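Section 5.1 Outputs to date
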Amino acid sequence: MQAHEIDYHIYGEEMQYVEIELDPQEVVIAEAGSFMMMDNGIKMETIFGDGSQQQTGIFGKLLSAGKRVLTGESLFMTAYQNQEYGKKKVSFAAPYPGKIVSIDLKEYGGKFICQKDSFLCAAKGVSVGIEFSKKLGTGLFGGEGFIMQKIEGDGMAFVHSGGTLAKKILQPGEILKVDTGCIVGFSKDVDYDIEFIGGIKNTLFGGEGVFYATLRGPGVVYIQSLPFSRLADRIIASAPRAGGSGREEGSLLGGIGRLLDGDNNF
């Protein structure tokens, strides 16, 4: 497998985007909805799957697309090809506040495992598939899902995280315990399992879930401080209820305060 060699630059702090520089005929693939802007001369084309099986016939294309369906993604991705003679640029934005992580698959032995919603874009030739957990407990209680994504190849890939990003380098046998939703991704040699928190009080009143993930080294692990699921839960909890009622954070006046500050939802 030989992926296209792309150059890139990541801009921004909290709301980042990655700018990919394409040489003539080079291609980058991206998730639908991540496109931000591009130079004139770049052709956009919708493809089945990740494009790595485009030469294997209709069955190979359907298999590649079917793998994406199992991870909850769309059947299609978008390919951007530079059809001019000079260098051209195309940019992709993270879907919510956080950080974009560049993954050079050559440095990770050709494989990186990540949460199913974290993949953003990659050089053509990089394969985006599914990674099944080998342990039943992980599949049943993994929180973010039994199926994770695996990114394979020898090119550059980009994943995004929520909030602040932490990179942990685990030594052989070293264990890191993490909230299941806070995992962005990890290298292929990291052993991933689910552990019961234990204790009746922790289970009933801890508010942190019943299980957490244990990651055993050696390898590299990326952790996010704000998973999108947490962000969505807070937004839903603060949204106005039917009939116009809602939680008024920081206001002693509640609904009356909304009338005074101009937030009138009738």
